[in-house]
Structures are given as structure tokens and as C-alpha cells.
Amino acid sequence: MTLAADTTATIIPCLRYRKAHVAIDWLCNAFGFERRAVYADADTVHHAQLTFGNGMIMLSSAGDSGSEWTNHIVQPAAIGMKQTQGPCVIVADADAHYTRAKAAGAEIVIEIADQDYGGRGYGCRDLEGHLWWFGSYDPWKDETAAT
Question: Are strands 120-125 and 107-114 parallel, antiparallel or unpaired?
């Protein structure tokens, strides 16, 4: 019996942004995401879906929304830019993606390089400090992975 749903991607990172509308534009321009849905009232984004290939992130405005979820999340700037997780995105051409992200103002925290485990990748922060990893290594195609 499998617990996973029969869908395109079963894990979807969710992020919060202080300036969510600006972040949506920036993520599409810098990282190549595409808008799938944005539900908003004026400056507040209640829920947005951005796609990249068959992957997706969801995001909303940070702040006191009154939801239970809000009480468990802080923005990177509020905790010295530290984080406990960050999305990893598989790209077709890591060098081209790096160039695009850097030109859009992404803060590169790990320079692009060939990785010991395969592929090529880099780490960066987005416009509000969230950490991201972009690389060409595809764990789905790694035949050495344990099953």
C-alpha cells in the first residue's frame, strides 16, 4: 500500500514572503517559474502556485494572517538569515540558470561547481533571503541510490 497520492508531484515546498507580489514577479524572472494561480486581495497574497517543469512551489504573504500556520513560521531576516530547509530544483542547464539568477540579483552563497555526487549546481538566496539549490543532478535518475 502506498501512502502517496497519484499526482504530478507529491512534495510541494511552501514559502512565505513579506512582499509576496514582488516575490512572485522576481521568482518568475530570476528562476524561471511560471504563474499557475495567484489568489490575492490588494497587497495580500493568500495563496499562489508557481510551476517549474512538473514541480511547483506554493507561497503566500508573510505576516499575521490569523492562521495556525503563521505561528510556526518566521522569515529568514528575523533569525539572522538562518534556515532549516531550502528547495532543491533540478535544471537542464545549471550554468545558464546561474547566469539568469545572478543577473536578477540572487545572492550567490555557493558558487556554481561540479558536484562530487554528479551534476553541477549552485546555492543562492532569493530577494527575501530564502535559500535555494539549483543543479543538474537528478536523484530520480541516480542508479546508485539505495532502494
Answer: antiparallel
Q: Which residues have a Cβ under 8 Å from the Cβ of 133 and sit 6 or more positions away?
A: 86, 87, 88, 89, 110, 121, 122, 123
pLDDT digits (tens, 9 = 90+) for 5-49: 788 888 899 999 999 999 999 999 999 999 999 999 999 999 999
Using CA atoms, how far apart are residues 124 and 102, in angstroms rounded to an integer? 9
Q: Estimate to the nearest angstrom the gap between the alpha carbon of 31 and the chain centroid.
A: 9
Q: Is 31 helix (H, G, I), strand (E, B) or coil?
A: helix
Structural domains in the chain, sorted by start: 14-141 (3.10.180.10)
Among 104, 139, 87, smallest CA distance to 27 is for 104
**Residue for grid cell 545549471:** 94
What pTM did the predictor assign?
0.88
Number of H helices, E strands in the chain: 2, 8
Cell of 26: 522576481
User: Residues 56-111: pLDDT tens digits?
Assistant: 999 999 976 667 777 788 888 888 988 888 999 999 999 999 999 999 999 999 99
Q: How far is CA 71 from the centre of its chain?
A: 21
> Which residues pair with residue 129 across a beta bridge?
none
